[in-house]
Design a protein that fits this description.
The complex is a heterodimer of chains A (179) and B (563).
Chain A: E1 5-7, E2 10-12, E3 17-18, E4 37-40, H1 41-53, E5 58-62, E6 80-85, H2 92-103, E7 109-114, H3 121-126, E8 131-133, H4 140-143
Parallel strand pairs in A: 3-4, 4-5, 5-6, 6-7, 7-8
Antiparallel strand pairs in A: 1-2, 1-8
Chain B: H1 13-34, H2 40-48, E1 52-55, E2 58-63, E3 69-71, H3 72-85, E4 89-92, E5 98-100, H4 108-116, E6 134-135, H5 150-160, E7 175-178, E8 192-198, E9 204-210, E10 223-229, H6 233-247, H7 258-265, H8 267-281, H9 290-299, H10 313-321, H11 323-332, E11 333-334, E12 341-346, E13 357-359, H12 360-373, E14 377-380, E15 386-392, H13 396-405, E16 420-421, H14 436-445, H15 449-455, E17 460-463, E18 477-484, E19 487-494, E20 506-507, H16 517-531, H17 538-545, H18 548-555
Parallel strand pairs in B: 6-7, 7-8, 16-17, 17-18
Antiparallel strand pairs in B: 1-2, 2-5, 3-14, 4-5, 4-13, 8-9, 9-10, 11-12, 12-15, 14-15, 18-19, 19-20
Classes of the chains: A alpha/beta (179), B alpha+beta (563).
Chain lengths: 179, 563
């Protein structure tokens, strides 16, 4: 299977396993696999201590309706927060990522998962995502180009760019004169 | 004329670069779509955010005209595009934009590149994102203006352009600005309406209205903040949008606008959530610096007005001598903040032409008139007309003659024949019914100018479906196309109005066939003429007396044939 994870601006192997407990499993007792894991918020809520006691990095996956504030106390222990997009047109995950970065100060990996596609990468990156697990069928290497669809931005978001009006661009005059 | 001194926002290198990069991005997306590398469902939101619909008869491209302001050079470019890539005309919309009804998909990247050459684009003119910002078409020249909203509207345009967090909202999001005593931007009927105001201390700020709108659930929006310092316009908007993006409904297309969220939470609870969010955002890097407002405001400086007397004897003489001219002046010429100047509406409502349509030749003519009479600048109104905002009173007669020759001088602004109308079923895939032929039938019925002037101010709005692009809810008379078992019917409402006392019209009863509509309008108007008091407009009479006399006149004792 081709690599589908973009991280740090390049295509990488995914060192995490996403663990979705089988349908109907008792979350309180379901066995946890070994190795680096990303688990749904619902499982994290029940098995937090057990997950942290493991000798491997752990990440939590949020659904669009999950409030990232629910992770506030534990963010320093999480390697990854994954945010799932059921459809790429469901934009709630952008605000979730913004809140994680800007409100909650999360410095670890924020990973977009689910229906993640090339033409959303620029906006996702500006909203605080730094890892993208692309949907099946997406060409990750070709998608890299979309991270730099635009070379500048007007507004502040969750990346390092300040609003345009707080940069030196303010000082440049009109570039084009109507003929 | 020194066109570089035109009173509108001019792109700097960064503005231009972003628009150029957008063209390149969309060119590649279109290429991938045509090559089969990008699925239809994946391409659709991308093309919509570039104004491109796939319509009944092929694609439709909606070009952004930020807050309705255009230079003559831009209008000439629109005319050139209409000739080269379409069928030689365009349609001005109720949101101050321009639509091309027949471009070819594969040409759209080239059209966008042509637009970028004159500092234009089609960014976010459709899709579930922040749409083109609109404002008062008399901004900057209106005698009743308190604060000129254009600079704030431009700052909002920039902030909302490619906002990464708010590109996939539950539904479309429209922002309007007003800054005068009269609200000419329907701010109570937008997702956010901003009224630029001054505090008693003389500070500029914004009254914030959220959750108004038309469509299936028309609502006059509540004020959620009486005074927001202008510096915090973007932080407050961000707070509103974050609350909406997180909690607005996404399960039902018809309940996804912010008005439904505001209504469900109640304005007080919605406001509390916004204020809580805003508490984290105010006084941050997104707070607008004084220097930024000054930079943008400088673009909207006054043109080189002459010191003129207000009285123009030659003009007064022409008024007295020429009745057609005086009728036109009465309806189509508006007050101006400067002595000796006026603002002029060039009507796009000539009978026999779809409301809001302009041919490429007319666009060129208007561009020429703008250069000759109005500092090379013009505006699009949300009533689908064009405005020359800075015309010397002494030039009015010459301008009128030229406008008349070009079919742009229908002296009916604000009257029944000045119909606001969406493209309807002739063009739009969403429409339930045609709207343009209905507009034309009404215009033909009311073709007597004296009669029209006697009836007085009457906003007549027609929408071909519940999306209400023709703003039928706020028409003094509103007509809505509905589909019943595959046939087209028209529902009539009365009593809607715009402005500070905005109200949603009430449906008078069972709907009508297209052929019946002119009779119905005539009966409504006749009833008003009999019942009106001195100085009362149609809508005032409706509000004084209620629907009953109008219903009686229209339906009488007739059997309700089709409920």
């Amino acid at each position: 299977m081709p690599e589908r994870l973009i991280r740090a601006g390049r295509v990488q192997a995914d060192d995490f396993t996403t663990f979705d407990p089988p349908e109907g499993a008792d979350l309180a007792t379901v066995p946890l696999p070994a190795g680096p894991l990303i688990v749904p918020f619902a499982l994290w809520a029940v098995r937090r201590d057990a997950l942290l006691a493991r000798d491997a990095p752990v990440g939590v996956r949020l659904e669009p309706t999950d409030d990232p504030a629910g992770l506030a106390q534990d963010l320093s222990r999480l390697a990854v927060v994954a945010i799932r997009f059921p459809k790429f047109t469901d934009g709630r995950g952008y605000s979730t990522a913004w809140l994680l970065r800007r409100r909650l100060g999360f410095a670890g990996e924020v990973r977009a998962v689910g229906d993640v596609k090339r033409d959303q990468l620029f906006y996702l990156a500006r909203s605080g995502f730094d890892a993208f697990l692309l949907a099946d069928g997406q060409d990750a290497r070709a998608a890299l180009a979309s991270l730099s669809d635009f070379s500048a931005a007007y507004q502040a978001a969750a990346d390092a760019r300040p609003p345009r009006f707080r940069t030196a661009a303010l000082l440049t005059g009109p570039a084009i004169i109507h003929g | 004329m020194a066109l570089e001194r035109i009173a509108m926002y001019r792109y700097d290198a960064l503005d231009q670069r972003l628009v150029d990069e957008r063209v390149a991005q969309f060119r590649d997306q279109t290429r991938r779509f045509l090559a089969g590398e990008l699925a239809d469902d994946d391409f659709k939101p991308l093309r919509l955010q570039n104004g491109l619909y796939i319509q009944r008869h092929g694609p439709m491209l909606r070009v952004a005209i930020p807050y309705g302001l255009l230079s003559s050079r831009q209008l000439r470019q629109l005319a050139a595009i209409a000739r080269r890539y379409d069928r030689g005309y365009g349609h001005f919309t109720t949101r101050q934009n321009l639509q091309f009804n027949h471009p070819r998909l594969e040409d759209v990247p080239d059209i966008l590149a042509e637009l970028a050459k004159v500092e234009m684009h089609a960014i976010q003119t459709s899709g579930n994102c922040i749409r083109n910002v609109t404002t008062d078409h008399f901004a900057g020249v209106a005698p009743d203006e308190i604060v000129d909203p254009r600079a704030l509207a431009e700052i909002m345009r920039q902030w909302s352009t490619f906002h990464p967090e708010f590109a996939f909202l539950p539904r479309k999001f429209k922002i309007a600005f007003a800054g005068a005593r009269e609200d000419r931007a329907a701010t109570l009927l937008h997702d956010i309406g901003f009224h630029a105001v001054r505090s008693e201390a003389g500070e500029t700020g914004l009254k914030v209205i959220v959750g108004g709108g038309m469509g299936r659930t028309p609502i006059v929006g509540p004020v959620i903040r009486e005074f927001l310092p202008w510096r915090e316009m973007l932080t407050y908007t961000e707070a509103i949008l974050r609350v909406y993006n997180r909690y607005g409904r996404r399960d039902n297309l018809y309940k996804a606008r912010i008005k439904i969220l505001v209504k469900a939470l109640g304005p007080a609870e919605f406001t509390r959530q916004v204020e809580d969010e805003w508490a984290h955002l105010r006084d941050s890097q997104s707070t607008i610096p004084e220097a930024e407002l000054a930079r943008v405001t400088a673009h909207f400086g006054d043109p080189a007005y002459e010191a003129l007397p207000d009285a123009e004897p030659a003009f007064d003489e022409a008024l007295a001598d020429n009745r057609a001219f005086s009728k036109w002046v009465e309806r189509n010429v508006h007050g101006h903040k400067r002595a000796g100047y006026t603002a002029v509406t060039l009507s796009l409502k000539k009978t026999g032409v779809p409301p809001g349509d302009a041919s490429a030749d007319q666009m060129d003519t208007v561009a020429g008139l703008a250069d000759r009479f109005s500092f090379g600048e013009l505006r699009v109104t949300h009533e689908q007309n064009l405005v020359l905002a800075d015309v010397r009173k002494r030039d009015l007669f010459t301008l009128w003659q030229a406008a008349r020759q070009a079919g742009l001088a229908s002296p009916t602004v604000g009257l029944l024949a000045d119909i606001v109308c969406c493209p309807g079923g002739d063009f739009c895939a969403l429409a339930n019914a045609k709207s343009i032929p209905v507009a034309q039938a009404i215009q033909e019925r009311f073709d007597d100018l004296d009669w029209l002037h006697d009836i007085g101010e009457l906003d007549l709005n027609i929408s071909g479906c519940m999306n209400s692009c023709g703003h039928h809810h706020v028409g003094h008379i509103g007509i809505l196309g509905v589909d019943k078992h595959g046939t087209e019917w028209y529902q009539v409402s009365i009593g809607g109005r715009q402005g500070h006392e905005a109200a949603v019209g009430e449906v008078i009863g069972p709907s009508f066939s297209a052929g019946e509509v002119p009779d119905v309008i005539e009966r409504l108007v006749d009833t008003y003429v009999v019942l009106r008091r001195e100085g009362e407009r149609f809508v005032d009479t409706v509000h004084r007396l209620g629907l009953a006399p109008f219903k009686a006149a229209v339906y009488g004792n007739r059997e309700v044939a089709h409920a």
